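Dear colleagues,

As part of the handover before I leave the project, I'm documenting each prediction I ran so the next person doesn't have to rerun anything. This entry is a single chain, and its sequence is reproduced below.
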Amino acid sequence: MAVIAGLAVLASPLGVLGSMEALAQSAGTAEASPPSRGQKARKLRSSAVPVTPLALTSTGSVGVTPAPPSFYSLGQLGDHLYSVRWELAAVGAGLAAVGLRDWDWGNGSQFQTIKEGWFSKNTRHGGMDKIGHAFSTYVIADILTDRIRANASNPVGAPITGALVAFGIMGLGETLDGFTGRHRFSREDIIANGVGAAFAILRNSVPGLREKLDWRLMYTPASFERPGVTASEESGILPPYQRQRFIMAVKGSGFEALKNTPLRYAELHAGFDARGFEQDERRLGYPIERTFYVGVGLNLNEVLFGAGSVPNFRNYKDTLPAWAVQKTFEYLQVPYTAAYHGHRFSTIRR
């Protein structure tokens, strides 16, 4: 939330997406004086030959053939990066703060690698760290995509730039992890970063998908967890894995058939978490468990900014503070705004 708020403060106000310049060619006709008798005769003689209008082709020599539009180029990349220079500074500062506080950056260890695995019972965090890497990359890419579309002179290809930059930033962070004896460089984390970047491209490129689908993190309150499970004995800036739950939310407001019904306020959720892997959970003897969740939730953005007869803040939807609130609710699931049923699997007693 702090990173999102920082981006909102540093970013320029949202505007209408920059329009693409269309290539057009106009043909002009010259004013002619009334034809003479001889000209009329010549016109009659030449009327037997059909005359077709001049058409420009890609190989024609008349006029200038417009160059095909460029979908993506290094020039666009440079323009995109410049348009989000302050956002990049905020992301870099946030990542540095987390790395120094939570990940032991700068302790001077030699570069080391580690094979961490994915979601099996003998992994360090039960896969929560891998989902966390993918989610973090997605959030950075998605925010940068939004800001590029708002600020760049040519926003075409914004999802590609956002994903490339987010993947690069998270890859740099993983490389710095390699110089800490505690975490080390993980190829699995790099792959997870790629999954998050790909999801960001998909969500921002498929028409209508971002209106239908959110990927969120919920910081679960103590009442959601077993007795004795605290924030963490090693808590830092980021929430610990034993208090995280990741959720995919399908929003009714994104479907045309539901936009004018009360179901526009509803969401369908699918979630996952892993418990029993962290130090305080092991000390208390809790079993290793991974849980899938299904549930229904309330779309807070639709409640606060959606169209309808319910009074809300829709008139301020396009302001910068409203943008920050909407992005926050796209990435963070507020506890007690959804009801879940969980199915635990592969429980392992200690």
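The two ends are 36 Å apart (CA to CA). The longest helix spans residues 128-151.

All the best with the project,
I.
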